[in-house]
Amino acid sequence: MKYVSEYRDANLVRGVIEEIRRVATRPWVLMEICGGQTHAIVRHGIDQLLPKEIELVHGPGCPVCVTPLELIDQALAIAARPDVIFTSYGDMLRVPGSARDLFSIRAAGGDVRVVYSPLDAVKIAQQHPDKQVVFFAIGFETTAPPNVMSVLQAQQLGLKTYSILVSHVRVPPAMRAILGSPTNRVQGFLLAGHVCAVMGYWEYPPIASQYRVPMAVTGFEPLDIAQGILTVTRALEDGRIEVENAYPRTVTFEGNRPAQTMVNRVFVECDRKWRGIGTIPMSGWRLRPEFAEFNAETRFQVSDIHSEESPLCIAGQILQGMKKPHDCTAFGHRCSPEHPLGATMVSAEGACAAYFRYGSV
Fold first, then answer.
1. What 8-state DSSP symbol labels residue 225?
2. pLDDT tens digit string along 136-147?
3. 197 falls in which pLDDT band (50, 70, 90)?
4. pLDDT at 1 over 60
5. Where are the alpha helices (DSSP H) in the chain?
6. 4-62+171-245 and 65-168+255-299 agree in CATH topology
7. For the segment 67-90, what is each residue's pLDDT rounded down to a tens digit?
8. Domain limits, the chain
9. What is the DSSP string of 283-314?
10. Which CATH class is domain 65-168+255-299?
11. What is the pTM of this model?
């Protein structure tokens, strides 16, 4: 584990944590919504340094983790076709489907390629006009702008062989689902700074007001996270229900309006299934009808593929803040990064992978 003591601003972090100790007088449960923040917290031991009054639970903000099993199986069915070049970000290749993963498809001769941008996939489509090129378009609001840009570019270039398999999800509806659950424990939120950099945080005040839960927009450095925890703790102790920006160097209230306009041009809101959680109404995006020709799900007729989750995997409960990875009986034994049962053990942002790698208890 890389403790805070090795961080360049370690003294500042310790100072903020001491202030949290001074401010916190009652038990509070806070959820960091983003998997990147989870890894930073566990990697630097922030959760171990906090006073006993503050408990951090881990939210569903890991795009790989919440991509439903049936979408993985649809991707595998498409990638196995001899006429397809299937492109994806690297952390999707080891996510287990019902029986295999994208790595095994590639090992069996499938043309599965890792790209760093969907625009790379568009270039591949230009270079291989005899192949169907598919990009696995997963993610939250952060990755939506480049994904819709790839569709717009393919349309402009007249590429008839490019399509995307869409599994986009949105943070605010997921938060409503968590807060509205009878098993909810969350009393305050650390919002994902990169999502808010794109979308702003204008969607969150109504949620905070409805459920009486304060929130803070938070970055990913240990100091950012500690400051966000302090901001929410102060609000809870004072009885204030606000959404505060603890990441002002990057995030504005309005967000990136041109990016939002572009996303709304190509995508429309829809119900979306979340792995381990189930369907959350209006929690995702899909392609608008005018861009239907770029929809890989319909192009390859895989929408009738349905799959069942492993009963041993409790990822859904972890993603809702109900349990921690070490509460799973399979953790570290039947489920490990080499032999994962679920996506939370595979993804670079998965809570189970963070606990396994950094040894958090």
1. H
2. 999 999 999 999
3. very high
4. no
5. 10-23, 35-43, 46-49, 63-66, 69-79, 102-107, 118-127, 144-157, 171-179, 193-199, 204-211, 222-238, 257-266, 296-299, 315-319, 351-358
6. yes
7. 888 999 999 999 999 999 999 998
8. 4-62+171-245, 65-168+255-299
9. EEEEE-GGGGGGBHHHHTT-TT------TT--
10. alpha beta
11. 0.88
Query: What backbone phi and psi angles, to 5 degrees, belong to 186?
Result: -75, 130
3-state helix, strand, coil in the chain (%, to 5): 45, 20, 35
In whole angstroms, give the CA distance from residue 81 to residue 133. 11
**Most distant pair of Cα atoms in the chain: their distance:** 66
Confidence (pLDDT) at 196: 97
**Stated length of the chain:** 361
- Residue holding tokens 């993985």? 72
Q: Give the Cα separation of 76 and 7 in Å (integer).
A: 41
Tell how strand 278-287 and strand 162-169 pair up. Answer: antiparallel
- By three-state DSSP, how is residue 91 classified? helix
Categorize the per-residue pLDDT at 3 as very low, low, confident or very high, splitting at 50, 70 and 90.
low
Residue 3 identity (one-letter amino acid): Y
User: Does residue 338 carry a pLDDT above 50?
Assistant: yes
Pairing outcome for strands 278-287 and 188-192: unpaired
CATH number of 4-62+171-245: 3.40.50.11750
CB 195 within 8 A of CB 142: yes
Single-letter amino acid, residue 11 = N
Mean per-residue pLDDT for 31-40?
90
- Sequence-distant (≥ 6) Cβ neighbours of residue 23 within 8 angstroms: 230, 233, 234, 237
Report how far apart, in Å, the C-alpha atoms of 221 and of each of 3, 5, 55, 232 are.
Answer: 13, 13, 19, 17
Please indicate whether residue 225 or residue 343 has the higher confidence score (pLDDT): 225
Measured between alpha carbons, how far is 1 from 84 in angstroms, rounded to an integer?
41
Determine which of 114-118, 267-271, 339-343 has the lowest per-residue pLDDT on average: 339-343
Average pLDDT over all residues of the chain? 91
pLDDT, position 8: 66
